[in-house]
Each structure stands twice: as structure tokens, then as C-alpha cells.
Amino acid sequence: MERNATLYAGNWTADRHFINTMNGSPAQITAVRDKSRETIPFYYEDVNGSPFVSTLCENDFLLFSVPVKNLGKGSNIEIEAVLISSSDSPKYFIIEYLEAGKWKSIPENLRPIPEKPYLKYSFACSGIAKGANHEYTSVYQTFRLGRKINGGSLKIRFRATGGITCSGRPQDPHSPDGAIGLAGHGFNGAYIQNYGLSVPADTTRILCIGNSFTYFSNAPSMLKEIAWSQGHYFNIRAHLKGGQTLGQHRGLTLTANEISYGNYDIAILQDQSQNPARYAAEPEKYGNVPLDYLALSDMVLEYSPECRIILEQTWAYPAQESGGFGDYMTFTGLLDEGTHYMAGQNGGEVSPIGKAFETVFNENRGIRLYDTDNKHQSHYGTYLKACVNYIMITGQTFNGTPADCGLEPEKAAYLRKVAETVIFN
Predict the structure, then answer these.
(1) What is the pTM of this model?
(2) What is the rounded CA–CA span in Å between residue 17 and residue 30?
(3) What is the per-residue pLDDT across 64-90, written as a single tens digit (0 to 9) for each?
(4) Which residues pair with 235 in a beta bridge?
(5) Looking only at Cα atoms, what is the longest distance across the chain?
(6) Is the Cβ–Cβ distance between 221 and 139 less than 8 Å?
(7) SS3 letters across the chain
(8) Within 10 Å of residue 349's Cβ, how many Cβ atoms?
(9) What's the CA gap between 60 and 13, in Å, rounded?
(10) Backbone dihedral angles phi then psi of residue 406, each to the nearest 5 degrees
(11) How far apart are CA 249 and CA 209, in angstroms?
């Protein structure tokens, strides 16, 4: 189960499990019934290459199994996923891993279920799977093994808890409705990685709110991996939805839910890609743009009063006549001006990702920062974005052996140097 894997095939519906076939790994995803209802069948679907399963109820779970030869005690494991849920799928899930025959959770990321405070959960689902109001759930979780695994499998599960559907109705194992599935957001469904045995020197709680300029190629994952390689644990929570402005995020259920976790050290906000430039070009027409930024920042600060607010300066792009601004440099300048104005309204900080893109674009080293649409970020662009955000958060240059996140080492090193130069110079 890796970043960039091909889409899920129909064997989910034929064999009732998915086997990762990108590199021959026999890692599997399966749906498992609680023993109290194990004779009741699930309903399986393959929707445009993504696996869906219906009638999950309390204590049923999605199981991720990864064969391992020797996974040492103290290994740090990262699991990430993007889930699509419908109105009658379970609303709450708890993330657990199997160790010495017992399922364990990660206490620091648990919170009480509002409807049943005696139960806890790791993440919630929206119940809106499609249409203009859809919201997908982004999961980022790290845990540390207390015992080694010699042979066998690393097992992680997303277990339904609370007995409540997203619509508030009791769960029904006999209803074919209530599908939940795994989406591909620049990585395929679920991504599991071993960070090794190192113990980070510190922990930073980070909230990411944005759209496709964040979820393409999974920017939070790269940020987390880079930080770990530098000795820092970034405990990330996120809500990401394509095309959203910061104003629209204020009305999203899962955005509000992630904000309400509270006690964040850093909040990284990413507005719709043209919004700051539109405001800079026509402030009278787009006066809502900085106001929406301020309102969303206030939501964050209500639950995390000491939180640093970092507003991303996103990048100009060639597509659509440079976002409708005529040329690349004009677009870049307006993004810079608008973003700095917005952040200046409440003392927020600007992450100069757009300036880093401009540098690479102008130096023309043969690194393609954009996806095939000449707008969204490629893996190189995502890595550059993650590097800039890492330096903004820590105030540090890179040292030792920073994570390349699957990029060619020499290209990754160049992008890191650009990030350092843009921020420190």
C-alpha cells in the first residue's frame, strides 16, 4: 500500500480483499466483521477503481496487513489514508495496531465521542460522499511498536465505534447502504511506512487546512517524513477538499471538527489558488478574501490560543493563461502581495512557497514542478512545498540525511537548497 500505486482493481469485489500489486508486495486490505455478527455478509463495490464496503457496524473494521520479516521493537510506523463515507456509514473510527495479540490505540490522538463521551475515537467521517458538499476524511497516524515482529504481519485496523451512522441513525448490518471506501489523493487509498527506530527530540501539533494544492501528491505526508528525518515529530491532522476557499472551509463539518481538537502549535492555511491574487488585483471586489482568512484564523485560535498561523503563498502556474492574470510573473507578484496583506491583518506568517516555485521555474533545471495539467503540483512541487513549510515551522536548515521522499537525491537536494535560500536570504 504505497504512494503512487495504481488504482484498485476488481478483485476487491471478486476476492473480498485487495492485494497491492505495484511492486509484488502481498500487503492486503480486508473488511472484517465483529464475531457477534460474523455470518452477516458485507456488500462490496469497486467505484472507479476505489474499493467500497457497506454495512460496517460497531466493532467491524478495515484491516491493513503488511508481511514483515523483522520489524524491531521501537519501530515507528506511519499510516495514512483518505476515506470516502456515505450518510449511513459509521461516523466514528478508532485506529488500532496489533501487538502481542492485543489491539492497542494511540491515546494522544483520541477524543470522546460527543454522543457517547464514555467512548473515544481517532477520526470522524462526514457522510457526504459526492456532490458539491462532499467531504473526505484525511488520516495521518504514527505509532511506536513496543515489541518486535519476527515474521508474520504488521496489522493495523480502522475499527468502527460508537454505533452511530453519519446521519445519526443506528447502524444496520442488513442494509446495503452506508458504503465507506478508500480514495486516491495523489497516493492510493492507504500508505504505510516504517520511519525506523529513531526517537524525535520534540513533538509539534500541526493542523493543515487546504485543497488540492495540499492533497496532490500528499504534501502533509512529505512534510511529516522530512521532519522525522530531521529529528522532529510533526503530529499532523488535516482537512482537505478540492477547490475550497478559506471562507468555504468555515462551513465544512470536518474542518470544524479538526479545529476543535485544539492545542495545536501550528496551523497551516492554504487558500484557493487565485484568491490572494484576485484580492491584490481588485481589493474592492474581493474584500471577502482577507476577511475569510481572519474568520478562519479566529476559529483556530478559539481552540488553540497559542497557535502560530502560517498562510501559504501558493504558486503561479502556466495553465488557464496563468490563472487569468495574463502571464506568470504578474500572477506571482499578485499572489505575493495578496498573501502578505492577508497574513499582516493578524500577525500571521507567510510561507513563501510561490517564491520557491518562481526560483525553480526561472533557473530551469529541468525539474517539472507541475502535474500534467500545468497547475497542480507534481511530486517535485509537493516536495518543494514541504521543504519550505518545514523551514517555516522549525526555523532550521537541513542537516544530516534529510528524507528524499522517493525523489532522485540530487534533485531533492537542489529543492531543499532553494527552500533554504528563499527563506533565509
Answers:
(1) 0.94
(2) 5
(3) 998 888 899 999 999 999 999 999 999
(4) 205
(5) 64
(6) no
(7) CCCCCCCCCCHHHHHCEEECCCCCCCCEEEEECCHHHCCCCCEEEEECCEEEEECCCCCCEEEEEEECCEECCCCEEEEEEEEEECCCCEEEEEEEEEECCEEEECHHHCEEECCEEEEEECEECCCCCCCCCCCCEEEEEEEECCCCEECCEEEEEEEEEEEEECCCCECCCCCCCCCEEECECCCECEEEEEEECCCCCEEEEEEEEECHHHHCCCHHHHHHHHHHHCCEEEEEEEEECCCCCHHHHCCCHHHHHHHHCCCCCEEEECCCCCHHHHHHHCCCCCCHHHHHHHHHHHHHHHHCCCCEEEEECCCCCCHHHHHHCCCHHHHHHHHHHHHHHHHHCCCCEEECHHHHHHHHHHHCCCCCCECCCCCCECHHHHHHHHHHHHHHHHCCCCCCCCCCCCCCHHHHHHHHHHHHHHHHC
(8) 14
(9) 18
(10) 85, 0
(11) 8
Question: Which amino acid, one-letter code, is at 72?
Answer: G
Cell output for 276? 490572494
| Residue 178 pLDDT greater than 90, yes or no | no
Question: Cα separation of 286 and 281, whole Å?
Answer: 9
CA distances from 16 to 31, 46, 186 (A): 8, 11, 24
According to DSSP, the residues that pair with 158 across neighbouring strands are 62, 95
Q: Do 359 and 421 contact (CB within 8 A), yes or no?
A: yes
Bridge-partner residues for 232, per DSSP? 202
Which domains are assigned to the chain?
A: 11-182 (2.60.120), 198-424 (3.40.50.1110)
Closest of 373, 389, 382 to residue 411, by C-alpha: 382
In terms of Cα–Cα distance, which of 264, 266, 288 is closest to 278?
A: 288
Q: Give the model's confidence band at 6: pLDDT under 50 very low, under 70 low, under 90 confident, else very high.
A: very low
Per-residue pLDDT tens over the stretch 250-293: 999 999 999 999 999 999 999 999 999 999 999 999 999 999 99
Residues 419 and 387: beta-carbon distance below 8 Å: yes
Task: Write out pLDDT tens, residues 333-349.
Answer: 999 999 999 999 999 99
State how far the Cα of 156 lies from the Cα of 66, in Å rounded to an integer.
9
Structure-block grid coordinates of residue 68: 514483515
